[in-house]
TrEMBL record:
Residues 38-294 form the Xylose isomerase-like TIM barrel domain. Signal peptide: none annotated. This is Inosose dehydratase. It comes from Priestia veravalensis. One of its GO terms (biological process) is inositol catabolic process. Gene3D superfamilies: Divalent-metal-dependent TIM barrel enzymes (3.20.20.150). Belongs to the IolE/MocC family.
Length: 298
């Protein structure tokens, strides 16, 4: 289905140790995580909170397992803090990823985000940006895009539950307000379906700007419970709202078909944060790898 050599398949370490709730998987080591990724058949990883930030140390550990770094999350605060604060941290992050051989930088605006608040209802308290905040976000992202371009890299914006850019209309507005040469999109199947959006619509509309893909499945019964019981994003994760592709309710076949017929090149990253004490990360990594092979040929 896919042309040979155009897609790299990775998996995120958040299934082994959760970045937002480090007590989930606190017992799992960095070495165990990357060893199981490689054993499950993946070729790369994003950067988790247990990964060494010394480039030589990290490269050595990954090279033993024939793994690469695909990208890493960067939180922006363009709507709530001076631009200079975000820029300074971004440059350090950019240079680290560049040294690791990555070509994309995942960014997500965390100004007024509720994704990290344990007791804030996800759907009831979702932030809405003001006109001024939208302008600050767009200008700031364009600036970060220029900084990324200095290293021949791209920023990819991660639409995310509990933030000001979550819904179709918000993604549309962000794409309209930013320079298509500087600001690209991360396509995350799980966050779109969780929010109630149509992932195929977003995929078809923004394919030329999509430069990174997160493959994540959703358990619809948990989504309904999140709404009914007014759970937060973190409570939803603890209750298993996300899972690996093929284990939830998303139909991935048309998504794979659309991507295979496109000019997309780059990473597909399985990202499915669950409680590793409930969902063994190695077993779920194997399950995801088998499903992707069967449905996409990768």
């Amino acid at each position: 289905m896919f042309k040979e050599g155009v897609i790299k398949l990775g998996i995120a370490p958040i299934a082994w140790t959760n970045d937002d709730m480090p007590e989930l998987g606190g017992e799992n080591t960095f070495e165990q995580c990357i060893s199981e990724m490689a054993l499950a058949g993946f070729k790369g990883s994003e950067v988790g909170n247990k990964y060494p930030r010394d480039v030589k140390v990290l490269k050595k550990a990954l090279s033993h397992r024939r793994l690469e770094i695909a990208s890493a999350w960067f939180s922006t605060y363009l709507t709530t803090k001076p631009l200079e604060e975000t820029v300074s941290a971004f440059i350090n992050h950019r240079d680290f990823l560049h040294a690791m051989g990555a070509s994309v930088i995942v960014v997500s605006e965390q100004g007024r985000s509720i994704q990290g608040l344990m007791d804030t209802p996800l759907f009831d308290e979702k932030p809405q940006f003001t006109e001024d905040e939208w302008q600050r976000l767009a200008l700031g992202l364009n600036h970060l895009g220029m900084l990324a371009k200095e290293k021949d890299m791209h920023i990819v914006y991660h639409h995310h539950m509990g933030t000001g850019v979550q819904t179709t209309s918000e993604i549309d507005r962000l794409m309209e307000m930013t320079d298509p040469e500087l600001v690209h999109l991360l396509f995350d199947t799980g966050h779109l379906v969780f929010s109630g959006e149509n992932p195929l619509y977003i995929l078809k509309k923004y394919l030329p700007r999509i430069k990174h893909v997160h493959l994540k499945d959703v358990r619809r019964d948990v989504v309904e419970a999140v709404k009914a019981k007014k759970w937060s994003f973190l409570q939803a994760v603890r209750q298993g709202v996300f899972t690996v592709p093929g284990d939830g309710s998303i139909n991935f076949e048309p998504i794979f078909e659309q991507l295979a017929d496109s000019d997309y090149t780059g990473w597909f990253v399985v990202e499915a944060e669950q409680d590793p004490a409930v969902a063994n990360p190695f077993e779920y990594a194997l399950k995801a790898r088998q499903f992707i092979r069967e449905k996409s040929g990768l």
